[in-house]
């Protein structure tokens, strides 16, 4: 395969991925909520002037939750497509996919608390 063909294939793949990211933000309510929360903590980061290390942890946590939420939406879409009717297995599959998001959300919340509780307490000093 020529380098040009390989490169154009990769560029096209990035285009599809970007299309998927836009679709997630526009169509998935849970992703919309996470995007809103991400914007909120970014604003908080600027307001409290958090450190570079804190920015890295915050952005990593936000990216992890958004990514997990997106994959959860994909699992839900596959489940609904292959079996639109009620089925215990489908319920279990959706529950564990949502559980994966919950893991990311719990640890991201803890990171958020570690970063912001000291700044918030300092406001009352
Ligand atoms: N086809 C099904 N068969 C059995 N249980 C289902 C089925 N669809 C949904 N459920 C149950 O309902 C829960 C919610 O499913 P749903 O597809 O509505 O996801 P959701 O959490 O509302 O999605 P979102 O993350 O977009 O808010 C699942 O976790 C599962 O327990």
Automatic annotation (TrEMBL):
It comes from the Bacteria. Pfam families: DAGK_prokar (PF01219). A divalent metal cation binds at residues 28, 76. GO terms for biological process: phospholipid biosynthetic process. ATP binds at residues 16, 28, 76, 94-95. Keywords: ATP-binding, Cell membrane, Kinase, Lipid biosynthesis, Lipid metabolism, Magnesium, Membrane, Metal-binding, Nucleotide-binding, Phospholipid biosynthesis, Phospholipid metabolism, Transferase, Transmembrane, Transmembrane helix. Its cofactor is Mg(2+). Mn(2+), Zn(2+), Cd(2+) and Co(2+) support activity to lesser extents. It is a multi-pass membrane protein. One of its GO terms (cellular component) is plasma membrane. It is found in: Cell membrane. GO terms for molecular function: ATP binding; kinase activity; metal ion binding. InterPro entries: DAGK (IPR000829), DAGK_sf (IPR036945), UDPK (IPR033717). The active site is at residue 69. The chain crosses the membrane at residues 31-50, 96-121. Substrate binds at residue 69. Belongs to the bacterial diacylglycerol kinase family. This is Diacylglycerol kinase family protein. It comes from Nonlabens ponticola.
